[in-house]
């Protein structure tokens, strides 16, 4: 068995999310700006020659065979390649922070290294897309402008920012929101310059807030301190601060039983730094 490799699977924020269309296969066309965070789940990997994939750790809420971590490992597995994977979860399920996708991407990156598969990052992105639309951006490991169904990526360098993220304690299924009849699916395409000038929103926010009152309450509370937004399809909401101290001052005021954390936005995933 190899020496364990310990990696961060970073969370993400959608700084905006426009849905510009829906394809015949059901996938939604979108535009978004994915901001990676220096906070997330922690995964440990040890490669062996058992031919099996073992997954342990926190209660992951579903059977191992249905977990994206195991599916990612099996997408690379051949011969007698095996691995023991341990997960320490921080990213809430159904929070819009990309936890499952980030875990899958981190698994692809780690096992490509440990098993010496030799895939390029671009090839791993293509494999990741078969697992989920958000997986490629985590494989690429850079804050990015995203289009298509999530596979068209353009790295973006953003100034350092700190974010207060609140999880209001509910689970929002992505499938429910993307299948909602009232969801806007025809937002006109915009430019990156327009986003930086403030011409953007999250098309899912109104739908989620209407269906999940706790999300609406969290958005309204956080709006007292800045521009409060939903990330992805929710349930987490966030706002940006110029400093860690400013974000933490507000975090101390977050009402119970909501959970909150402060994280720094990063342009490059810490995972890539470790693997390089």
TrEMBL record:
Has the keyword Disulfide bond been applied to this entry? no
| Pfam families for this protein | GHMP_kinases_C, GHMP_kinases_N
Q: Name one process (GO BP) from the record.
A: terpenoid biosynthetic process
Provide this UniProt record's keywords sorted from A to Z.
ATP-binding, Isoprene biosynthesis, Kinase, Nucleotide-binding, Transferase
Q: For binding ATP, which residues are annotated in this chain's numbering?
A: 92-102
The GO terms this record gives for MF are:
4-(cytidine 5'-diphospho)-2-C-methyl-D-erythritol kinase activity; ATP binding
Nucleotide-binding is among the record's keywords: yes
Instruction: Report which reactions are catalysed by this protein.
Output: 4-CDP-2-C-methyl-D-erythritol + ATP = 4-CDP-2-C-methyl-D-erythritol 2-phosphate + ADP + H(+)
Q: Which InterPro entries match?
A: GHMP_kinase_C_dom (IPR013750), GHMP_kinase_C_sf (IPR036554), GHMP_kinase_N_dom (IPR006204), IspE (IPR004424), Ribosomal_Su5_D2-typ_SF (IPR020568), Ribsml_uS5_D2-typ_fold_subgr (IPR014721)
EC assignment: the record states 2.7.1.148
Q: Which residues form the GHMP kinase N-terminal domain?
A: 67-141
Q: In which pathway does it act?
A: Isoprenoid biosynthesis; isopentenyl diphosphate biosynthesis via DXP pathway; isopentenyl diphosphate from 1-deoxy-D-xylulose 5-phosphate: step 3/6
Per UniProt, the enzyme's principal EC class comes to: transferase
Lineage: superkingdom: Bacteria
- Domain named GHMP kinase C-terminal is located at 200-258
Q: Which residues are responsible for catalysis? A: 12, 134
Similarity section: Belongs to the GHMP kinase family. IspE subfamily.
HAMAP family in alphabetical order: IspE
Please name the NCBIfam families in this protein's record: ispE
Function of the molecule:
Catalyzes the phosphorylation of the position 2 hydroxy group of 4-diphosphocytidyl-2C-methyl-D-erythritol.
Q: What is this protein called?
A: 4-diphosphocytidyl-2-C-methyl-D-erythritol kinase
Q: What organism, scientifically named, is this protein from?
A: Parahaliea maris
Q: Which gene encodes it?
A: ispE
